[in-house]
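Researcher: Quick one. two chains, 865 residues in total.
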Amino acid sequence: MERLIKYLKCFPVFTLLMFNPLNAQISEDSLMQSAMMYVYDDPDKAIEIGESLIKSNENNPEKLISIYLMLSNSYSSKRDYERSLQETLKAKEIASKLKNPTQEFKILVKIAAQYHSLSVNDKALEILEEADRIFEKTKDKKKLLFDMGSNYAIKGFIYSDQLSCDIAIDYFNKALRTYSESDMDIDRIGVNQSVVSYNKGNCFINLNQPDSAKASFMIAKEKVKDVEAVSLRAFSMRGLAEIYTIEGNYDLALNELIEADSLAGNVGDLELNSGIYRGLADNYLAKNDWDNFRKYDNLYNTTVRQLRQSERNTINNILSDYNREIAEKEKSGKLKYLILISVFGLLFLGTLFSIVRSEILFRNEFGKIKSRIKL
Amino acid sequence: MSLKSTVTVIFCLITCFVYSQSSEAETLLNQAQEIVSYNPVEAATITEHTLKNATDDLVKIRSLYIGAISSYVLGNYDVALTKAFEGKELADDNNNSEFKFKNSELIGRIFDFLQLKGTGTVIDDSGKSKESIFETEHLIEKGNNSLFNSEIDSAQIFAERAKKGWSESNPGYQAALYYGLIADIDFEQKNFESSVQNYKKAIQISDELKNPFLNETLYDKIAANFLVLGNSQEFQKYSELSKSFNLASSKIETKASNEAHKLRIKELDRQYSKKTALYRSIMWLLVSLAATALALKIIFYIRNRNRLKMFGRLLNYLKSQEELKEVKKAKPAEKTVIEPEYKAVVETVEKETEPQSHPKTSSLLKESEEQILAALEKFESSKRYNHKDMSLSKLSTQLNTNTKYLSEVINRNKGKNFNAYINKLRIDYITEKMKEDPAYLNYKVSYLAEECGYSSHSTFTTVFKSIVGVSPIMFVDFIREESHQEHISN
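Model:
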C-alpha cells in the first residue's frame, strides 16, 4: 500500500527543451550529424565525437556553438546536468563574443531551463533577466518571440515550484500570449501552449480554483488536438480528471482517465502512466469499487517503482560498469604487479648471488696473487 | 519533549568543562543515541560538537554514525549517505567491524530505497539489526506485505512487535511508522474513522520530524481516507500538502542518488587502491632492494678490481726486485690459473710493467761507456743516491763526465731517464729496508721519505706508488700481514 505521489513536474520543461529551435541548427557536417544521432542512444560516443570536433573547429565560432550545445544535450542525456550546463555556458561565452544577440538570447533561455532543472532557481532567474535585457535591446523582436514565450514559461515553472502560484499564473499567461504572437509554426506553438496551460491548471488546483483549473486543462487538451502529441493530450485529460474528482464527479473523472490510459498506452511514459493509475485508483476508491481500486493501486505502485528504477538506470549502469571496470583493473593490476614483483625479485636475488660469487672469486684470486708474492 | 532534551543537551555541554574530554564525548554520544529517533535535530547538533572536538577516531566514528542516523530520520538521505560513507571509511581504517557493518546497513537501506545497486550489505531476513530504527522499519515492511496479501492478523502481530521499539513518553520516528501501519490496517478493515485518527497521530509526530518522505506518504494516505468518507475538501487539502512534500522529497531523492553515485565510485576507487597497495609496497621494496644490490655489486666490482690491479703491480714490483737480486738463479715465475673475471685485469697490469725493449746501438765508444757503467754500479751500492741534493750535474761531476753523456748512458742502459733511475734506486732501497728491518714498519711516512732522500712526504708517496703500485702505508700493512702470517705458520 505504499503510496508515493509522483507529481508531474519534470515533463513540461523537458518538452520545452525538446522543441527548442536551437536543436534544429544542425550542421551539414557529416561527423556532426552522426554525433547528433548518438546523443540519446550513446551519449559517450557523441561526446567523444564532439570533443574531437572542438579541436578541428577552433576558428569557427558558429560551429563551436552548435558543438557545445550538442555536448550539452549529450551530458543531459547522461543525466550529468552540471556538466551539461557547463557546455551550454561555453556556447554562451562564444555567442556573446560574436555579438549575435538572437543566438545569445536563445542560448540564455536554454541555460535558464537547465538551471531550473537543477533546482538552481535563483541563477535561472538571473539568466532570464539577462535574456530580458537582450530582448529589450533587440529591434527585430519577432524572431525572438517564441523563445521569449519559453522565457516566461520557465519563470512560471520556477514560481509554481516555489508554490507562488499567483505570480506563476501571470507568467504562464504572458507565455501563452507571446507564443501566439510568434512566427513559429502553429503546431510547435500549440505544443508549448499545451504544456504551459497544463502547468497553469495545476497551479489553479493549488490555489483551490477548480473552475479555472478545468478551463486551463481544457485549453491544454484543445491545443494538441491536431498534433501528434498524444502524451500531452493524456496529461491534460488526467488534469481534468483531477478536477472532476475534487468536484465529486467520479464517473466523469473515470471517463477521462480511461481514455487517457488508452492514449498513454502507446507512449510508454511512466510518469504519465503513474498519474493515470493514481487517478483511477482514487476514483474507484471513492466509488467503493475495491477490486478496481486494488488493481490500479498496485499498478500505480509498480509504475512508481519502475519510474524510480528508470531514473536510477543511468547511475546503476555507471555503477555496474565501474564495478566491472574496477574488477578488471584489479585483475590486470594484480598480474602486472606480480610480474614486476617477480622481475625485481629475481633481479635482486640474481645480483645478490653474483655479489657473493664475485666476492668468493675475488678472495681466491687475491689469495693466489698474494701467494705469488714472496718477500 | 524538545524542551526536556534541550535542557539535557545544555547540561551535557556544561559537563564538558567538568569531565575529561573522552568521557564527555562518550556521555554526549550516548545522549545523542538515545534521542536520535525523536529529536534528531538535537542529536545532530551534539554529534557535530563531538565530531569537531574529537581527539580519537572512535568518537569520530560514533559521531558520524549517529549523525548519519539523525539525517536518515529527518529524511536527508544525501547527508546521511555522506556521513555513513565517511564513517565507514574511518571504521575500515580502524578495523572497527561493528561500525563498518552499521554504516553498510544504513547505506544499504538508502540504496534500496533509491533502488540503486548497492554494496549488498542489507538487513537479513530475520530482521535483526543493532539499530532499533531499522528493526522497526523492517517489521513495518513485513506488516505492509501482510496487508498486501490481505493477512490482517499477521499484520497486527507485526504491528504489536513494532510497538516495542519505542516508548510512549518519547514518540518519534518509529512511533510514526507504527501509527501509520495501524492506520493502514484500519483502512484495510474499512474502519476509516479510526484510520484517520491513527494517521493524525502519525502526522503529529512526523510534522515535528519534518521528514518529507514520511509526510508525503502519510498525507497521501489520510487523503485517501477522506476520499472514501466523501470529504472532498479534506481530500483536496491533504492531497495538495502531500504534493508539496513530494516536491521536497524528489529533490532530496535526486540529490541523494547523485551523491550515492559519487560516494560509491569513491569507495570503489579506495577499495581498489587499498587492495593494490600491498602489491605496490612489495614491488617498491624489491625495486629498492634490487637497486641497492646493483649499486653494491658495482662498488664491490670497482673496489676488487682496483685492489687486484694494485696488488698485481705490487706483485710485479716485488718480482722484478727478486729478479734483479738473483739474476741468474731466478726461476721462471709460477703460472697461476687466473679466474676469467679478473684475468683481464691482472694481465693488463702485467703488460703495463713489462721491461721495455733494449736501447738502440750506440754511437759512442764502448770503452768509456763501460767505465761509466762500472762507476754507476759503485754508485748504486754506495747508497749515495739517498742524498737529498742528488742531481744529474752532481753525479756527472762525481763520475768525471758531462751531464749530457751521463744522461744518454743511463737512458740507454737502464731504460729510463736520470730521475726515474734515482727514484727507482731510492724506492728499492727503502722497500728492502722495510722488508728486512721490522723497525721501519713503525716509522712515519715522512721519516721514510727523508731516509731515502725526499724532502717532501707527498712526492715520496707519489713516487712510491708509481713504482711499487701501492702507497707506502698499504705496503707497510701488506708486509705486516705477511710477517704475521709467517709468524703463525711458523
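The longest helix of chain A spans residues 290-372.
Researcher: Thanks, that's what I needed.
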